[in-house]
Amino acid sequence: MASEIEFLGEAPGSHYSGDALLLADEEADDSVSVSGGSSTPTSQLLAGGVGSAGPDTDAVASALQAGDLEADRDDDDDDDDGAANPSSSSQPAATGGTAAATAASPARRPRLASTSLKEALRAEASVSSRSGASAANANAAASSATAGLAPAASSPASNNSASSTASDKPAPQAAHQSDSVVESAEDIPFNWAADEKHIFILSNAGKPIYSRYGSEDRLVTMMGVIQALVSFVQDKNDTLRSIIAGDYRFVFLSKGPIILVAVARTGESEMHLSSQLHIVYNQIISVLTHTQLTSIFEQRRNYDLRRMLAGTEKFFDSLITLVDSDPSFFLTAVRCLPLAPTIRNTIGQTLQQNRPADLLFAMMIAEKQLVTLVRPKKYPLHPSDLLLIFNLVNASTSFSAAESWIPLCLPKFNNRGFLHAHVSYLDADLETDADAPARSGSGRVCLLLITTNKDLFFVLSEFRKQILQSLQATQSMEAIQDALDRENYRIAHVDIAGLRHFIYKSKNTSQFTQPELEAPYTTPEERQRLFRQYQHVHSAIHSTARPLKIYFNNGSKEAMLGWITTNFELYATFGPLVTKSGAIAAVNRLLQWIKHEEDKLFILNAQVF
Amino acid sequence: MAARAPAQRAAPGGAAKICQFKLVLLGESAVGKSSLVLRFVKGQFHEYQESTIGGNFSAFLTQTVCLDDTTVKFEIWDTAGQERYHSLAPMYYRGAQAAIVVYDVTNADTFARAKTWVKELQRQASPNIVIALAGNKADLSVKRVVEYEEAMAYAEDNGLLFMETSAKTAMNVNEIFLAIAKKLPKTDSRGPGGVAAPGGAQSGNVELKPDGAKAAGGKCC
């Protein structure tokens, strides 16, 4: 790959004066992303990688070997599908004996594909969860693991080994079948390797809380492994951040009483996966508050948190899908509905006029784009909180059926208590008294009125009516509908030769803009590939080890340019034939175009009261 | 989608009295509270209704029915059944004149949970509250585990209105709301009270009712 990376001097040109703060300053966000230069000692486990050194790593590695994991993978270059190969050499005892016995067999040479990694680790997990996180010897591992696994191995004896590893050893053809059949969970191997990315959430006690795919109940043993790994490393006053095994990257986040793990072969960086785990964690907080989460586990370490999160799975599913397709999340920025500034001001004033005293935030969201946001001067709304709200609105298809009243915690605003949100669609028929025929599900413009007062529902309901009347009087609703009907702008409007697509984030306002994706990015695969490219450029630029000012990479399918200054971040895609100087000239013209359009594309003047 | 509910509409200007009642729906999650409300208010049924209209959260709807010479306006709180919102429930049933406690006839646990809700209402809600028990999903008769007689006996013991309902087929949906409307004291709400403010019990409620809800208050199996 012909790649050039250059460091340039301080980038020129500031595009915004610093006053246009719509959203919170992004500084606070640093606490979200994992910083590589963190002061806490951390170790990165490179299982099967080029041997990495350091006392901590060694300790862990040797502990892993107690579970018969050898840091030796000379015959493992075909790892890609190794995890999906049931007859691989890592399962020599598949026809007899238990998997645990296999795992403890000193003669075995485990593959370091994730399957064998997990299997080996599970042997250790059983030990750790029984006798604390100590480096037990292999025999202990074997016996405990056998005992621990025996109840799970309920399928016929001839199939013993396969069933006891069912939770993580896939059969090639069983792909997604497993998701639909829950009853006979133990019979059907969960082909977890079939999916590119998994997110697991478990409690510190090792109880499953959430799994992106499959049923958590069947992942109990794997949860045990994760818990053991994390607590083992914690025992050394260290933090387990990630493991690389073959193409898989395991990223861990231990937050108070819960552990979150991402397992991905998407090529995403540790930084991105870790920040996604933070986002998922914040989703939990937004349902429960930090206070409640902590106190639940203080009272009962063994609590099954799924009871408290019942019904919220779709918010997690939606969130995890969004972080894989929506740049908002890695940018920590929101997209605004393009609107003429005068219209936006009118709408903003509507949300402020005669507002109830306890109103905290009022906002309108249309199809994952911010129409406007009104807030008190002293209370900024952090973009990551706003993104959780976007997800809430996006994942609930039927807010348009009625006015809803929602206890909601915004973790960055205050993770200790609930705010209350009045949520309704402005363009859906909620007036059931009226003679108009009932219809629902047609809403596109969502109004959220957020308050600290839990008794304010009826006041806000009245306020909503007033807003609706006022929007109709000023014909703002039509303007919003028009903007939604009009498709997003195209790259042709920008009119710069060779430029295929771009993402521009205004750092002062935490907002970004991008044109529609056009050819060649028309298929889901190509779009996903481009998205990963953007993620890659983003993590190269934000790398803590070696941050870049400008990144330029001329690949075989396209050329990517990334540029970060104090005021903006710009990511641009060109055809593969562009030269570096050509690309830089093009982005300078692009910046002029954005400057020209910025009052439409961004909310430059925060509406505060 | 299903036809519009045949519930009687308010005849404009015709009714002599207008009564406004706050009604709350309680019950385990996934028993069909939202489906009942949507059937009653909008005449709709969605096979795969998302958990609670607003997505696990409480939703507010209104519907007006005519009863003889009275126009009854229901202000309905469809609450979330999830355990984590249990502590918020009093906010909704406090000051409510009526409650529908819903269970799923195909799930015995939800019936047990419904009994707990009834107890809580009898203990903590306004003493005159009219409580109706609804055994929903009655169309799924093959999967039934809670027998009609069992629930009926429980309802009689506790002075509850009782009907088996089906939001899917609209069976007994309007009927149960109408039965509640009939049982409620008809005091014109255009005086004090007005729009039901949370917690504001209506003054008209001192009227004792001949049967049921009130008598059973406090004692229960």
Automatic annotation (TrEMBL), chain A:
Q: Name one GO cellular component term.
A: Mon1-Ccz1 complex
Q: Which segments show compositional bias classed as Acidic residues?
A: 69-82
What sequence ranges are listed for the domain FUZ/MON1/HPS1 second Longin? 358-469
Q: Domain named FUZ/MON1/HPS1 third Longin: which ranges?
A: 498-598
Q: GO BP, one example? A: protein targeting to vacuole
The protein's matches in InterPro entries, at most eight in alphabetical order, are given as: FUZ/MON1/HPS1_longin_1, FUZ/MON1/HPS1_longin_2, FUZ/MON1/HPS1_longin_3, Longin-like_dom_sf, Mon1
Q: Where is the FUZ/MON1/HPS1 first Longin domain?
A: 197-319
Q: Where is this region: Disordered?
A: 1-113, 150-180
Q: Where is the composition biased (Low complexity)?
A: 83-113, 150-167
Q: What name has this protein been given in UniProt?
A: Mon1a protein
Which organism is this entry from? Capsaspora owczarzaki (strain ATCC 30864)
TrEMBL record, chain B:
Enumerate the UniProt keywords alphabetically.
Endosome, GTP-binding, Hydrolase, Lipoprotein, Nucleotide-binding, Prenylation, Protein transport, Transport
Where does it localize? Early endosome
An example GO biological process term is: protein transport
Coiled-coil annotation: which residues?
none
For this UniProt entry, the molecular function terms from Gene Ontology, in alphabetical order, are:
G protein activity; GTP binding
Give the matching InterPro entries.
P-loop_NTPase, Small_GTP-bd, Small_GTPase
Q: So what does this thing catalyse?
A: GTP + H2O = GDP + phosphate + H(+)
- Output a single Gene Ontology CC term carried by this record: early endosome
Q: Which SMART domains match?
A: RAB (SM00175), RAN (SM00176), RAS (SM00173), RHO (SM00174)
Family per record:
Belongs to the small GTPase superfamily. Rab family.
PANTHER family referenced in this protein's UniProt entry, alphabetically: PTHR47978
* Entry protein name: Uncharacterized protein
Source species, please?
Capsaspora owczarzaki (strain ATCC 30864)
